Amino acid sequence: MTLFAAENLAINFGGVKAVDGVTFDIQEGECFTIIGPNGAGKTTIFNLISRIYDSTEGRMMFCGEDITTVPPHEIAGRGIARTFQNIELFEHASVLQNLLVGRHCHKTTSLWSEALFLPSVRKAELAHREKVEEVIDFLDLQHYRDSMIMNLPYGVRKVVELGRALCTEPKLILLDEPSSGLNVEETQDMSFWIEDIKKDLGITVLMVEHDMGLVSEVSDRVLVLNYGRMLSYGTPQEVQNDPEVIKAYLGG
Amino acid sequence: MSEIQCGKKNKQEPSDNYWEAVLFEFLQLVIGGVSIGCIYALVALGFVLIYKATEVVNFAQGDLMMLGAFLAFTFITILGWNYWLGALAAIVCMFVIGNLMDRAILRPVLGQPQFSIIMITIGVGYIARSAAGMMPGWGNETYAISTPFSSQGMRLIPESMGQLVVSQTDLSVIVATLLFCAGLFAFFKYTRLGVAMQASSQNQLASYYMGIPVKAVFSMIWGISAAVAAAAGILLAPTTLIDTNMGFIGLKAFPAAVLGGFGSIPGAVVGGVIIGIIETLAGFYLPPGFKNVAAYLVLLLVLVVRPQGLFGEKTGKRV
Amino acid sequence: MRFLFKTDYDQDIRLAKHSGYYWSYGALLVLITAVPFVLDSYYVGQLTQLYIMAIAGVGLMLLSGYTGLVSLGHAAFFGIGAYTEAVLTAGVTLPFMSEPVVFPFVLSFPLAAIFAAIAGVIIGVPALRLMGIYLAMATFAFAIVVEEIFSRWESVTNGYTGLLVESLYIGDMELTDGRPFYFLSLGMLIMVILFSLNLLRSPTGRAMMAVRDSEISAQSMGVNLAKVKTTAFGISAGITGLAGALFAHKLGFLSPESFTVLQSLELLVLVIVGGLGSLHGAIFGAMFVLALPQALAIMKDYLPLYIAEQPGLEPLIFGMILVFFIIFEPLGIYGRWLKVKLYFQMFPLYKKATFKRQKSYMKSERLR
């Protein structure tokens, strides 16, 4: 079943076509990867999906609904979570608080009940906490629960960010370069987690990644972009053998 | 045909005169507005220079202006120096003071949130005001500097056409502002130091790596900004006289800077002039009270319509 | 050194994290309850003032310390609360009634807070599109406009002539003076603190902190930036307005001069010196702002006459302390308090480097 579909997606930045006529679909339960040289428009596609940018053309369908003009803060509630290329965590808060913010799209309590901290709020908070603890267990973050983000090393922050995205209980998770800045061992962990997210949690993964080892290990299908246009589309093996792709990466 | 025309002309003559008077009155106000606006522009220029380089909004800018004016007063009136010499000396002194202020107070807090640094400049403003009040010979009274410019109006157009004058004082302000802007523009565009300043304002870390002495550059910018403030104070002195609270005029320069986009030198000048004109016109045509708030109402309006100011660039974080 | 063993998620939600909280805050409560029966009325008045400033400080802290939105115009909300209270308790002629309606304080206080909150939301709406310095400027401009309205809208505020504030009575007891007013202000402060603590441990408070640290990822987590920012402005302005309403009775006489830019700056100094990002900071800051003039008055007796007689002495010291605090203790009094506390907890193993600041370069806040 198609979970997400982009049809003829395009965006211009002052005449520069950052993304130009990109069409792809993501099937439920797969791991879909976008690769391409720097500046190919990969992150721009992520920003289009999370509605930080408005697309100039085309439309996006998610679960059979058009999300092209949905306000950005409603995206998480609809089941799309994301991580960022350069880690965007809440620096002056603890890991626990960061993960709890991930529960924000499931907020049920009103301002006034919160101000009085009615029993319903306490109950909701405990329920959120339980969900968060599941993610903590899943990602082995027990040790860092109460640490402040600013005191954490880069690798752990990367995991916390993944955890925060998982806390929204998404149907589709967007991972922007999950392995950037990680060492070999951490990258290996990351690839196991991506597998688990896909298989055990049943969450569809859309990722942007440069590390071809990781890409061929976890992804089912790959889309190659160059200068905002689609270059190739297929399984990792097919894509790697595509002469167009080799040309784009190696020149010539 | 011609008769009718003649009749019309005769009928409209008194009203023509009336409108002419209104028009000249309006133009006269605009000239006054441009003059005061240039002062705002000079103070705003100081804000913009510092903001561009260090992202600090210097709330003490008005107080630096006050210090500059008092220094000029000391040199010219108390010590009896020549006006030009005294003014130059005051500007140089303020350059040094601005430089030292950055070294002593602002360098230790580099990298802290803007908010705290802004509070430091507010603190410096307090210190400057009360210190000036305690200085022997300065004190909390109002003083004047004798200037070579007369406040007498000069005719801009022949008397037969109407009444439109500009005083030498006003003219001096306008000309000096233009000179300063041109000078700064050339400085940033054509000198090595100017280009280095632009670089350090865009990316501090990268500039370090490129061998630009970023800290020294910042101190330099604070110096230049203080010097511009001193010039504004000296030019303002004939109009409002000097006292320790004259720095509050700096608060009027905020709307000017924001209007211009807070990062743009021409923007600051245009913003200052616009604010000056609007304020003068509001003072004349609108009920009392509007003169004080006109600048701020314009500011609020601009921010609602165009949040990045008239000349500012719209930016967003890249993720 | 205390080790906490957590056996229940509720332990992280509770306000009192361990039994020590009951002892220390209980002792504090006993102390401040006993104080008005021991000290003479001057000090009771000063403490009342402290509580009022602390309420306003908590209000600004929620906005600046927790949501990261700087306001240079909180005196406006303070003033709106004060004038609303003064006008409502003096009696208002409503269109459909023949006699002026005098509002009882149980109604006038909430109304003062609500009026200020509405003003806060109004300034919060343009604030949605503004960042950093532009926002600060907008609030600054707003405060100046409001100040001008206070002085020009003479039919209501009486302009610079000033407006007398009626005292409040319950039966024969005057509520707005001495001990009753002390307890009224204290009660309000405790209420406001509990309100804020509750918010901060629930989704809205976390969303506020998220907006402070990274707007873009807060948005991607489902936080509605517009809603959180306007809510923060509304709550902050409302709390500050409540403080203003109490302040009106404390002053007894309102004039626009009490609600100027300088007052806004004083509130900012309060939260900065107290310690940004902590409610303790608001209380410590209020203590500082009130104790400083007292300390200076005492100090003057020991200074040489020439210096002591200078009118500019107070702002000079004020400015210097502000500068020194930001350079040497950017976390404010609360930061120092934490260090002292840790020193005794760890004694004799306290390491100075625990709080060592990293050398940092300027980070652009133009983009956030």
UniProtKB/TrEMBL annotation, chain A:
Keywords: ATP-binding, Nucleotide-binding, Transport. Coiled coil: none annotated. Pfam families: ABC_tran, BCA_ABC_TP_C. The keyword Coiled coil does not apply. InterPro entries: AAA+_ATPase, ABC_AA/LPS_Transport, ABC_transporter-like_ATP-bd, BCA_ABC_TP_C, P-loop_NTPase. The keyword NADP does not apply. It comes from the Bacteria. One of its GO terms (molecular function) is ATP binding. Residues 4-252 form the ABC transporter domain. It comes from Sneathiella chinensis. This is ABC transporter ATP-binding protein.
TrEMBL record, chain B:
Pfam families: BPD_transp_2 (PF02653). InterPro entries: ABC_transp_permease, BCAA_transport_permease. The keyword Transmembrane applies. The chain crosses the membrane at residues 21-50, 70-97, 109-128, 171-191, 212-237, 257-286, 293-311. It is found in: Cell membrane. It is a multi-pass membrane protein. Keywords: Amino-acid transport, Cell membrane, Membrane, Transmembrane, Transmembrane helix, Transport. PANTHER family: ABC TRANSPORTER PERMEASE PROTEIN, BRANCHED-CHAIN AMINO ACID TRANSPORT SYSTEM PERMEASE PROTEIN LIVH. Belongs to the binding-protein-dependent transport system permease family. LivHM subfamily. This is Branched-chain amino acid ABC transporter permease.
UniProtKB/TrEMBL annotation, chain C:
It is a multi-pass membrane protein. It is found in: Cell membrane. Keywords: Cell membrane, Membrane, Transmembrane, Transmembrane helix. InterPro entries: ABC_transp_permease, LivM-like. The keyword Cell cycle does not apply. The chain crosses the membrane at residues 21-44, 50-69, 76-96, 102-125, 132-150, 181-200, 267-296, 316-337. The keyword Transmembrane helix applies. PANTHER family: HIGH-AFFINITY BRANCHED-CHAIN AMINO ACID TRANSPORT SYSTEM PERMEASE (PTHR30482), HIGH-AFFINITY BRANCHED-CHAIN AMINO ACID TRANSPORT SYSTEM PERMEASE PROTEIN LIVM (PTHR30482:SF20). This is Branched-chain amino acid ABC transporter permease. It comes from Sneathiella chinensis.
